[in-house]
Amino acid sequence: MSKKADVSPSVLANRRNPVLLYFYHMIVIIELETIKMMKDPTEILSRSLQPVIWLLLFGEAFSRMKAVPEAGGDYLAFLTPGILAQSITFVSIFNGLSIIWERDMGLLQKILTTPIERSALVLGKMLASTVRSLCQLTVVLSLSFCLGIHLQWSIGRVFGLLGFVVLGSAFFSGLSMVIAAIVKTRDRMMGIGQLVTMPLFFASSALYPVSIMPGWLQFVAKANPMSYLVDGLRGLLLDPVYAHGFLDALVLLAATLVIWALATRQYPRLLT
For the whole prediction, is pTM greater than 0.85? Predict the structure, then answer.
């Protein structure tokens, strides 16, 4: 039997269409990364404890201070989108660890010898991190329901929420790949990951509105992609006064495209 007969019609069709072949390769990478994540559910469970701790300890304590007038007297509701954004950032930024592990095990070298487009490979890995972020989304929303936090719901808001989760997760996952290509070791990746995420978190609108920050920090917050992720989630989950959805989505999309291009260029440097 010829090799052509052994290949499914869908794959043959993809080979004739470069666009379909590109997306086919991307989906294969997403599937492989998802299977790899599902084989170690303890990682997902352990990372799910982080938003629980923040909402139950930090959120409950500071909600009694009522120190944020923009929160309308409900600081816990104001904080919930910020903790969700933090969870998305923290689970995505350490995606670079798996990239370094693949290189150390020799898997990365084998992947790069396949005919998969480099950009499709990177995009697939960036989008695969969304699985972890969706788990964080489920945890945060379930906990907010148990705590009696009032959030806005509609079909449009749910789709918008998923869109922001995908964009935020893809951006920070791509950023982690760029960092992994620079630092090259898992120990350094852990340290740099913490060094990057903590300033991004505290210099955003996750914990407090930009209006109460000093002028220099407001400038930093407005240049911080995490602020746009927080604002987008807050506009969807809370009062429309927070909504700058189109601008937030546009900034996140532009940042994700830039980091995708950088990660695609940096990805081969992991081998050196």
Answer: no
